[in-house]
């Protein structure tokens, strides 16, 4: 039986991966920056395939502590690659980067494709550009194959309320249950984004690990553009509540991309993947998940 090693197993996508694919997670609490502990774990697990999800992925935190973000996302990836090399690994690895690496994309270039230049605008995105370049180099020189993913916005049950749509779902559920006044706190909701259900993302990663080209880079996205305001209004309608929407300055992010949508043509061409879960189902499942947590 193929042994899949999963880093970042306790994260949003990691938990979904474990539910769908037999995986061996790294030991709880293991830090990718701890080379000795990582080498020992890899030597014990002896993986056949690797899905590398572990990262510091919260953009505001990357501004607050860019050194830590780079240590985890770049040097943690380098430590993993060296640990795999030390056991003579000859399998395949999926590195999960980010669609945020494209930076500010002109509207004329939408939907953005993999060949578009990378212009990262925050420390998190810079760390992912560097780690992706590292993985490409290793895919050409290490003796094992590496495929790179650039996922865009995720959505679905289990996501942290640090992310906008999930936070809205939490606030709306609290309002519906009478746990807070009928007023929603929001940031800039007149931007658009490309959202993919986490369960579709999991399928994309599994297919890329199996069928992606060595050294290839793939957008993981829905190819559909939704405004944050539109999704907020859908959540409100699904919950059947009447609320006031208050924009809070502290929730506004600098250098905000006004519109974003990407193409999954390369992913579909090489793996046959396409998104299956409609946005309405993702939103309803998100509300249902919060109701279970809050009751």
UniProtKB/TrEMBL annotation:
InterPro entries: NAD(P)-bd_dom, NAD(P)-bd_dom_sf. It comes from the Bacteria. Residues 30-285 form the NAD(P)-binding domain. Pfam families: GDP_Man_Dehyd (PF16363). This is GDP-mannose 4,6-dehydratase. It comes from Acidithiobacillus ferrivorans.
């Amino acid at each position: 039986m193929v042994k899949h090693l999963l880093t970042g197993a306790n994260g949003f996508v990691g938990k979904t991966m474990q539910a769908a694919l037999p995986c061996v997670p790294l030991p709880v609490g293991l830090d990718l920056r701890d080379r000795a502990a990582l080498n020992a774990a890899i030597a014990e697990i002896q993986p056949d395939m690797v899905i590398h999800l572990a990262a510091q992925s919260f953009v505001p935190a990357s501004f607050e502590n860019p050194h830590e973000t780079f240590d985890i996302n770049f040097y943690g990836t380098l430590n993993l690659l060296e640990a795999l090399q030390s056991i003579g690994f000859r399998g395949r690895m999926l590195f999960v980067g980010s669609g945020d690496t494209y930076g500010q994309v002109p509207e004329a270039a939408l939907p953005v494709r993999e060949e578009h230049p990378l212009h990262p605008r925050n420390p998190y995105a810079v760390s992912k550009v560097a780690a992706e370049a590292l993985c490409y180099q290793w895919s050409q020189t290490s003796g094992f194959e590496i495929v790179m993913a650039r996922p865009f916005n995720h959505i679905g049950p289990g996501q942290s309320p640090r992310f906008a749509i999930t936070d809205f779902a939490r606030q709306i559920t609290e309002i519906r249950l009478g746990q807070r006044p009928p007023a929603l706190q929001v940031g800039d909701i007149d931007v658009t984004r490309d959202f993919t259900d986490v369960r579709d993302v999991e399928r994309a990663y599994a297919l890329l690990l199996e069928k992606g080209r060595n050294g290839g880079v793939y957008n993981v996205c829905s190819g559909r553009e939704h405004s944050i305001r539109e999704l907020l209004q859908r959540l409100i309608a699904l919950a059947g509540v009447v609320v006031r929407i208050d924009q809070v300055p502290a929730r506004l992010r600098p250098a905000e991309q006004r519109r974003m949508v990407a193409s999954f043509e390369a992913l579909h061409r090489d793996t046959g993947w396409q998104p299956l879960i409609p946005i309405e189902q993702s939103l309803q499942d998100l509300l249902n998940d919060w109701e279970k947590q809050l009751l």
